[in-house]
Design a protein that fits this description.
7 helices; Rossmann fold; 266 residues; alpha/beta; globular; 5-stranded mixed β-barrel; single chain
């Protein structure tokens, strides 16, 4: 007997008991000015050094208590944006933060993190734009109908790719595999998904795409390759990965503003 997730059939179409709008109302009892409406979008980061780079490059004001993360509001070329980190890895953590950001007014998000490649041709420091995410995360099943993939926003993904090219990042584009069990990745999965043309393994993209689709906002994802599952070696910090993360954050901010100029949300 099989037990597909979620256990309750059709769960994705049912109304939820909790509403992120409740979070926003509660926040405003303490911070009446808590709104992100009018911001071009938000970048989610999972490495503290990526958040530190954004703050060092663009400044920013910390907003304590607005979301369960380290939220910074920055200005870039006269545009208002948000960067959020410090909430930990994985689709559940990213989804919680994204729900809270959306409730406060965010309509676009780019998730920026590291990933493992499934192909030896992708060396540390390679930049990959995720064009779809294989749903092996669990969380996305609660937001979308059953299916193998979650998809990003084509328009925001196009802007993200263009912003990376403008920074000479030479991004690869392709599908990723989102899994919640990083210590249960197997050689059989890596071989199978690699043969399907899937480029990377990450922990968040499918969840972010699923929440975005459910809430009717735009989402995109970019990874800096940190190591390779097809050729297992002890992982080490690589300066090219660090540089790629910085470039990805900068490109994400540029992409959000370009998308906002092209198609402002109502």
């Amino acid at each position: 007997m099989t037990h597909p997730l979620p256990h309750h059939p059709g769960k994705h179409a049912l109304p939820a008991l909790g509403d992120p709008a409740d979070h926003a109302r509660h926040v405003r009892t303490r911070h009446p000015d808590a709104t992100l409406a009018g911001h071009d979008g938000a970048v989610l980061v999972y490495q503290d050094r990526a958040l530190a780079h954004a703050v060092a490059a663009y400044g920013g004001h910390r907003r304590i208590g607005w979301v369960r993360g380290n939220l910074r509001l920055i200005e870039r070329s006269g545009r208002r944006l948000a960067v959020c980190g410090g909430f930990g890895p994985g689709a559940p953590a990213a989804a919680l933060i994204l729900e809270q950001l959306v409730a406060l007014g965010i309509r676009r998000v780019v998730t920026v993190g590291t990933a493992a490649s499934l192909h030896t041709s992708l060396a540390p420091g390679s930049v990959v734009v995720c064009t779809r995410a294989l749903r092996d995360d669990g969380l996305s099943q609660h937001y979308l109908p059953p299916g193998p993939y979650a998809d990003p926003s084509p328009g925001l993904t196009r802007h993200l790719t263009g912003a990376l090219h403008a920074r000479d990042a030479a991004p690869r584009r392709g599908a990723g595999w989102t899994t919640s069990a990083v210590y249960r990745e197997t050689a059989a999965e890596v071989a199978r998904y690699g043969a399907l043309g899937i480029l990377t393994a990450d922990m968040e993209a499918a969840g972010v795409f699923a929440v975005a689709e459910h809430r009717g906002i735009d989402a995109a994802a970019v990874f800096a390759v940190a190591d390779c599952l097809a050729e297992r070696r002890p992982r080490r910090d690589h300066p090219r990965t660090e540089a790629a993360l910085h470039t990805a954050v900068e490109a994400a901010l540029a992409a959000l503003s370009a998308a906002a100029r092209e198609r402002p949300h109502g």
